[in-house]
Amino acid sequence: MNVTKPRATLCAALMAGGLAAFAAAPAVAQKKPAEIQAALDAAYAKYKDLQEGANADYIPALAKVDSKIYGIALVTPDGKVYTAGDVKSEVSIQSISKVFTMAKVIEDQGTDAIEKRIGVDATGMRFNSIVSVEFAQKALGGPEINPLVNPGAITATSMVGGSSRAEVWKKILDFHSDFAGRPLTVNQEVYKSEAETNQRNQAIGALMYAYGFIKSDYLQATDVYTEQCSISVNARDLATMAATLANGGKNPVTGKQVMKSENVPEVLAVMATAGLYDDSGKWLYHTGLPAKSGVGGGIIAVSPGKFGIAVISPPLDAAGNSVRAQKAIADVSNALGGNPYAAAAGK
Ligand code: DON
Hints:
Blueprint: H1 7-24, H2 33-47, H3 60-63, E1 71-75, E2 81-85, E3 91-92, H4 97-109, H5 111-117, H6 131-138, H7 150-159, H8 165-180, H9 188-197, H10 199-210, H11 218-229, E4 232-233, H12 235-246, H13 264-274, H14 280-287, E5 291-293, E6 298-303, E7 307-312, H15 323-336
Antiparallel strand pairs: 1-2, 1-7, 3-4, 5-6, 6-7
Helix pairs in contact: 2-15, 4-5, 4-7, 4-8, 7-10, 7-11, 8-12, 10-11
The structure holds 6-diazenyl-5-OXO-L-norleucine (DON).
């Protein structure tokens, strides 16, 4: 089925339908700052003592991260920042970076580049599934995965243009930094730890090269992907990155237009489809929010036109998603009317 619309038509439709609906809904901007802060404080207190999940340990450095780090940050389109708990401690961004590298490829090459080369469909399988690649190739006959699972993410990283590894890396790091509104750096311990143990991702890279999805040096692509996953962020950074997506690609804190507003809907669509992997459907059912998790313990979520929110808490569930982050984000969003599908109800 060809559902491609001319860009102008798509944007106009979104403005007329989706965004107008947000404008009519009880926007979070209409919530008093005290109400927003109270929602964060309540979610923080409710899950502070929750003892569920465990740090990721397949990357040895992640097992050593303090499991007690727990912070919530929310940023509104007018650039106001609300926080609760520890929003200073940094963790590695991990798979949340996949969103921004996908966005970079879309910015540079257009939305077709991702859809035609990688696909934009849920795999229903784990984020590092090799079977999903085989299944998409053999049973479905082509690009039927997405840029948020490892095979698609390593491919997306390989698509960032540049004449040297250093040039590619600078583009990726600068793009992430523009979203966060400050120069981000890499956690070298995490990078080294993952680089020493990422043979599975190297195999995935090789498979994507063998099937022609990756057209350049797959080991370099896997290595750059590993470095991008090791970018160090706190909850405030992540919330600002999410808020930039909520605000049509314009960082609400720095005022910089980081990506074209017309490219944001496709980024959010892939997050809604696959952001929490095999639990994406359940997440969307309960919150309606495009989101993305990382095995470092962060989750970002976007309520378009209303807010970007992030929680960091390292203990993960079986699908690789932070337990506290899922619960806290759902509570805050539901308290503030963040669900885009429930605009009229203000849910
Ligand atoms: O490739 C990996 O396994 C990690 N660098 C990232 C995985 C990840 O964050 C999955 N997310 N929940």
